[in-house]
Specification:
Strand content: 5-15%
Order of helices and strands: EHHHHHHHEEHE
Strand order of the largest sheet: 1-4-3-2
Number of strands: 4
Shape: elongated
Radius of gyration: 25 Å
Number of helices: 8
Structural class: alpha+beta
Distance between the termini: 22 Å
Length: 302
């Protein structure tokens, strides 16, 4: 049985995430108080959104710490590498639930339009833009390489954009007395949040369910491996992602001849190199067979 392990992904410290958590706590408290005083549903919705971010960012930060500080043990052979996937799923799911709630409240508000203290809305929206904009810049680099960080980054980016929308609404209410814009912007924010979170929810769920990565076609793998000399058949294939940058592969290799173990090692090295270069599969577990009486299907139904 041959195994190949390669690790090539950035080391994320989470320090920028911790700073973003502190900023969001300040914004949340300010916007909740301001929303109640001004009577703005859009500002309260932005505050609720920020509060969800505080919770989700804390989860992301904890997952980041677990992933990088807790190593594999005899009891936890994969360590805590799945922690960030759980965090990404929870963050995306919570954001969708909050977005649906805000949308319902916005629709109700259309029939209950009343005057709003727009100046307070404007200043708190500017505060939200500044603080979340800084957080977005801090996490942008890490978000390119890590799904957990990407979910946190999208939370903060959507926060900044909703604050921009709230600012525009505040200006329209102040200078044109268009108070229905508050409910309208809240509805747009909720739709936008669902749109931004859906892909992360589905992608993290697929990883947690051990689905094969969407960018890998198993039939292509089979065709490539069968081109390797001495391999007669490849079957009983399993392929899954441990997290968003570690892909695992296992299969049975049936050989044409009763080869030596040393020759098997050389062939495995060739297969592992092929899978890494063409399919970005970092971990391989290959079981050799010769004239073994078992099922030869690519995917075995348990």
């Amino acid at each position: 049985m041959s195994q190949n392990h390669a690790h090539n992904h950035p080391n994320l410290t989470g320090k920028n995430l911790l700073f973003s958590i502190i900023l969001n706590i300040v914004i949340t408290i300010a916007q909740i108080i301001g929303g109640i005083i001004s009577g703005s549903l859009a500002l309260i919705s932005d505050a609720v959104h920020n509060f969800s971010d505080v919770v989700s960012l804390i989860i992301s930060y904890g997952a980041n710490l677990l992933t990088h500080k807790k190593k594999q043990t005899l009891e936890y052979t994969f360590g805590y590498k799945r922690a960030e996937m759980i965090a990404a799923f929870f963050n995306a799911a919570s954001l969708i639930v909050i977005a649906v709630f805000l949308g319902i409240e916005a629709i109700k508000r259309f029939s209950e339009i009343h005057e709003i203290k727009s100046e307070l809305v404007i200043w708190l929206a500017i505060l939200g833009i500044a603080a979340n904009g800084l957080s977005v810049l801090l996490l942008k680099k890490d978000a390119k390489h890590n799904m957990n960080m990407k979910s946190a980054y999208l939370h903060l980016l959507s926060d900044m954009l909703t604050s921009v929308a709230v600012l525009i609404g505040g200006l329209l209410m102040k200078y044109y007395q268009i108070y229905w814009i508050d409910a309208f912007l809240t509805l747009l924010i909720s739709i936008y949040l669902i749109y931004m979170s859906w892909n992360i929810l589905i992608d993290s769920l697929k990883i947690l369910m051990l689905f094969a990565p969407s960018h890998i076609k198993i039939n292509e793998i089979v065709n490539e491996v069968l081109n390797v000399e001495d391999i007669k058949n490849i079957h009983h294939i399993h392929i899954w992602q441990l997290n968003d940058h570690e892909c695992h592969f296992e299969a049975h290799l049936e050989f044409k001849n009763d080869i030596k173990l040393s020759q098997f090692d050389l062939i495995c090295e060739e297969v592992e190199k092929l899978l890494m270069e063409k399919f970005q599969i970092q971990h391989c577990n290959l079981q050799p067979e010769y004239n073994r009486d078992d099922l030869k299907e690519i995917i075995i139904q348990d």
